[in-house]
Amino acid sequence: MTTSNNREVDPEIRAELGRLRESIDNIDAAVVHMLAERFKCTQQVGHLKAAHQLPPADPGREAQQIARLRRLAESANLDPAFAEKLLNFIIAEVIRHHERIADDAVNGGKPPVN
Amino acid sequence: MTTSNNREVDPEIRAELGRLRESIDNIDAAVVHMLAERFKCTQQVGHLKAAHQLPPADPGREAQQIARLRRLAESANLDPAFAEKLLNFIIAEVIRHHERIADDAVNGGKPPVN
Asked: CATH 1.20.59.10: does it fit domain A7-107?
């Protein structure tokens, strides 16, 4: 593949690239804020689960979420396999949070002995 | 950790869990649609890059995106390390798309010979 640096790029192409990148940056800011809100919800779920001795992971719920997101992705013309991998990535982080909350509830915030 | 099934859970707790999960599902639908829009933008970037022989990856741009998203994440009370990992995950998918578009431009959609 030919490589090229910015000095060789037509100013019109550069402007078009800049316009697209501004949209990408706006979307990324929106996604970061949506995910911040999502983690606020899952933190509350984590505290509820810890207070009522419910397990941090819930395979039935996760299977439903994945099936639903795959359908949504397909209707939005997004690769369903990518949407599933992304949700699994987020859920893994959420489970880590839930485990930490549950450990804190058991150990009063102190690290577990073993 | 004690495990518990839904039958043992207080109906009020179940209702609260259901309420939080509805919010999580709404947010996930929003994120899927934001990402579908993001891939529409990056597909356009991919076509521009392929048409003008620009490399699929752009390390300078990616470093800027990561630094910006880490700042945004911090201000939104989201773990910046998580935001960075997530962006890297999305960028890896985008670069795969760009490479495919560039290959198609060179090979007219036919698989490369070697």
From this structure: yes
